[in-house]
């Protein structure tokens, strides 16, 4: 028999809510409002937040199926790391200036960690491969899609055959069936991707194409891709911080343009001439 997946912290809370004592229900509602507080607060702090006793907190986590508050807190931390924004909401400081400063500092730390993780010649090798490819495929899902679109839009100035996946109204199979060894596939694997993203990455590798994986998922290192570019997306708030992913896409695009040579300059000139003909800009 196939084992059912473990229930998440939030699903456990919602499941027992109708059967709780009024005091426990007050605690449950506080947790549902700001589930991220479970990750960083002690049992006493959660009790004070909901105006209940420590004993109520203990009973509550046992009804959820956890042996202790620490076990429940660890579950929330683990689930938050998988990308669930809901579990990164909390009742922390709400000062605009300090919030902006925390975000700025976290972005800087993420950039430093990301850039320290790869050698500059990796980016140049990828840029060179993009120029040499029969076709370039760039894929992203959920938060990764606009980043993939940005990268595709930028390099298309000097690389004519670029496709951003998924195409509107098409299945992925309609594109993946045409992957060839002379192609390059750049796939963004960010947390909480649909499972289809992994299937696409596997398919690209199996096709013989050169594959670059960009993302914040440690398990992507297991795929035998040509490039693995790990981005740090640690966040000081409820949303993952994708500043480093955008920076990497910008770096790849910049190096692709800079290494395009006479062909790239000619193509960019032709595009500018066409802008004038069409009066687009």
From TrEMBL:
Pfam families from the UniProt entry: HTH_6 (PF01418)
Limits of the HTH rpiR-type domain: 7-83
Alphabetical list of InterPro entries matching this protein: Homeodomain-like_sf (IPR009057), HTH_RpiR (IPR000281), RpiR-like (IPR047640), SIS_dom_sf (IPR046348), WH-like_DNA-bd_sf (IPR036388)
Transmembrane segments: none
Domain of life per record: Bacteria
Protein name as catalogued: HTH rpiR-type domain-containing protein
Species in which this protein is naturally found: Marivita lacus
Source organism phylogeny: Bacteria, Pseudomonadati, Pseudomonadota, Alphaproteobacteria, Rhodobacterales
